[in-house]
């Protein structure tokens, strides 16, 4: 059941507005950044936010590998044959794709010819029943004309979000990236503020490559 079920759109906006105002003038950065990010992303999901969606990039030299342990009952494992169905299921659950076939098609386009690398670079979080419920890939890509690491496809199914899995998942992926690369980047967007603040805590910094991205970063509180 949603916290705000039963409220009209206007009433709901009026309810959350004071929290957004408070977060914009708050002087305790960890608290106000988190509050602002959560409120903004709730509004986005409700279709009530007018923030312009702009793709953004972040970059890390991978000099410091963050440590963040998984909660009790969860474990990591690397990609195994047949795990593309789990990757697709997770990404459909987070609305990256509307149907499983589209997710599988994207998997095959992006990873199908690199399965040997996928088995070394794609992570899953398993729940207590050893079912994959989250994924991240320590991939690679072209950055300013050279091949470097890429933190890619970080997703956790909604039922397990907010359970302290995001930081351990990203930290483990960064650890894997550092095995193969000395630097890495990731792609995000202005509407993913909570994720952006987490990436910053784990060592990634804004990489401004265009005027549009400069505008985008101006929307991110604390950037």
Automatic annotation (TrEMBL):
Transmembrane segments: none annotated. The keyword Transferase applies. Gene3D superfamilies: 3.40.630.30. GO terms for molecular function: acyltransferase activity, transferring groups other than amino-acyl groups. The keyword Transferase applies. InterPro entries: Acyl_CoA_acyltransferase (IPR016181), GNAT_dom (IPR000182). Keywords: Transferase. Pfam families: Acetyltransf_1. Residues 74-223 form the N-acetyltransferase domain. It comes from the Bacteria. This is GNAT family N-acetyltransferase. It comes from Pradoshia eiseniae. The lineage of its organism: Bacteria, Bacillati, Bacillota, Bacilli, Bacillales.
